[in-house]
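Hi R.,

Here's the chain you asked about this morning:
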Amino acid sequence: MLSLERRDEIKSALLENQSITVSELSDKYNVSFETIRRDFDELEKEGFLTRTYGGAVLRKHVRQDVNYNMLSNLFIENKQRIVHKASEFVSSGDCIFIDHSTTVFQLIHEIKNLKLTIMSNSIKVLPELSEIPGIDIVSTGGTLNKELYCLLGNTAEKTVKNFYMDKAFLSCRAIDKQHGLSDKFEQEAEIRRTIIDNADSVYLLMDHTKFDKTAFVRTCDLQKITCIITDHLLSDAWKELFISNDISYYEVE
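And here is the predicted structure, written out as tokens:
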């Protein structure tokens, strides 16, 4: 295996587990401890990890900078459990929004048999649904963000403002008790705010790595969310916060 391939796999392992040891990687790839230490040195220079005694830990804000394709391959089973639960809230005849996040993308596989009107800014979602009978598709239009595989900007926001949706299914880069939802890019946060304002109910689909973190741009307060579905057991503090703000929550561990 080439060193670049191995380092990509180390990145994925760190994103999933938050930490990793030299010895387990040495065994996995059948290479020396020194080879793994060199990999760690290079990844530390990239700002991806922090070296520890005998291993490494993921840098705090790294997940916000990982490319779409790598995120798409993380926590697949967890994402499928999340969207399976989310699909219970979709009914034939609904007008819904599906955003560009890798978790929400999985939802389309659960709802293809329903009669729906779906608006999306994801260029991954649109072709997946283009030949499905019973589903009408509305694209937001806008400027293509090649990193996120989605349409953003003024055109996208103006389109969303002209439609009112029964339900919106979305995610965000981070969620914090004090600061609410946040995202990496300003335009990403802006379109999510617009979606939230134009939907009767808002379902936030979140994997466990996004809790108790903040990203660069504030998106909205927690009070804007109707329901949160996540792949882990929530702390008592989070549960109390959701209950006090009349937010439904589901743990699909």
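One quick note: The mean pLDDT is 91.

Cheers,
M.
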